[in-house]
Design brief:
This protein has 6 helices and 13 strands. The chain has about 300 residues and is α+β, with helices and mostly antiparallel strands. It folds into 2 domains: about 140 residues, Aminopeptidase, CATH 3.40.630; about 130 residues, Aminopeptidase (3-Layer(aba) Sandwich). Strands 1, 2, 3, 4, 5, 6, 7, 8, 9, 10, 11, 12 and 13 form a 13-stranded mixed beta sheet that branches. The radius of gyration is 20 Å and the shape is globular. It starts with 5 loop residues before the first strand and ends in a 17-residue tail after the last strand. The relative contact order is 0.17. The mean pLDDT is about 95.
């Protein structure tokens, strides 16, 4: 561990640290670009970073996103939900040359101590190999669910219009849809967050598509194995989704997977709830949610 480390707090106003933070993220998480997202104005007061610095350079970070968590109440039915301010961690990483020295644990201890002081539950997503590390910090590993369906779908000759995160007008449409969005279903979810949605549009293959004559926006991704992933759905949710599916894909599809728990009527098309082997969620400071647990894909940081 370096002899001298400084703990710093980076917010959207800490301009003097932004370039070093962007560089750290690119080094530790290849392909992740915070700079474009921040320059477009989507680094808000609800996102900040705690970082450890040595010799003027960032060597470890933990990004913190404040979000309003929505938890289903045991025995109260689908309509009863408890809302609570929580914190999701992302961009948790140590520069390669400093790993194995306890720096990550030191930073996480600081982050969790502050979360306890503010009485905020904490959640994060990490790979399975980190299970022992996070369990030792008081996190509970949760098995996530997903909704899947097996369909044979060919792309429509009239694809849905794609919205661009680089277009001010299209960003406004997405923003309006977020404001009017309904709550997600499932044991644990959160209020839709425009800032996180835009981060995914800037950084991942997810596409935002206008459907239902502009009354809805579907966030989708074509996966290599013939799967159409519907990551998020804002606005009107039609009773029957099947007629819309050909307009959402750019290639033939044999399987659909949802990044949220869809409306009950959509299950009539043959959807099924199964365990998600690729989602490794860790939770601290909150009672274990009732199933299904399908934390919305585009609210994950």
């Amino acid at each position: 561990m370096p002899h001298t480390m400084q703990l710093i707090h980076i917010t959207r106003l800490s301009i003097e640290w932004h370039d070093r933070f962007y560089r750290h993220v690119r080094d530790v998480f290849p392909g992740a670009d915070f700079e474009t997202w921040a320059n477009a104005g989507f680094w808000t007061n609800r996102y900040d970073v705690l970082a450890l610095v040595s010799d003027g350079e960032i060597i470890a970070t933990a990004g913190r996103t404040l979000m309003l968590l929505s938890q289903a109440g045991m025995g109260h039915g689908e309509g009863f939900r408890t809302l609570r301010e929580g914190m999701q961690l992302g961009a948790v990483g140590v520069k390669a040359e400093f790993r194995g020295e306890g720096i990550g644990r030191h930073l996480m201890t600081i982050v969790l101590r502050e979360a306890e002081r503010m009485q905020r539950p904490v959640l994060l997503f990490a790979n399975r190999a980190a299970r022992g590390f996070y369990s030792s910090l008081g996190f509970v590993a949760l098995e996530s669910d997903q909704v899947v369906g097996h369909f044979r779908i060919s792309p429509s000759a009239v694809p849905a219009r794609r919205l661009s995160p680089h277009s001010e007008e299209d960003r406004r449409k997405i923003s309006d849809a977020v404001v009017s969005g309904s709550s997600h279903r499932g044991g644990l979810a959160a209020r839709t967050d425009l800032s996180i949605l835009l981060w995914h549009l800037f950084n991942t293959p997810v596409r935002a598509l206008e459907v239902c004559e502009g009354r809805s926006i579907a966030f989708v991704e074509d996966e290599p194995d013939g799967t159409l992933a519907i990551r998020e759905w804002l606005g009107e949710r039609p009773r029957d989704i099947a007629p819309l599916l050909p307009h959402l894909t750019e290639r033939p599809v044999s399987r659909i997977v949802f990044g949220f728990v869809p409306p009950e009527s959509w299950f009539d098309a043959g959807l099924a709830l199964v365990r998600d082997p690729d989602s490794h969620m860790f939770l601290r400071g909150l009672s274990i949610p009732v199933r299904p647990i399908c934390f919305p894909h585009l609210l994950r940081t």
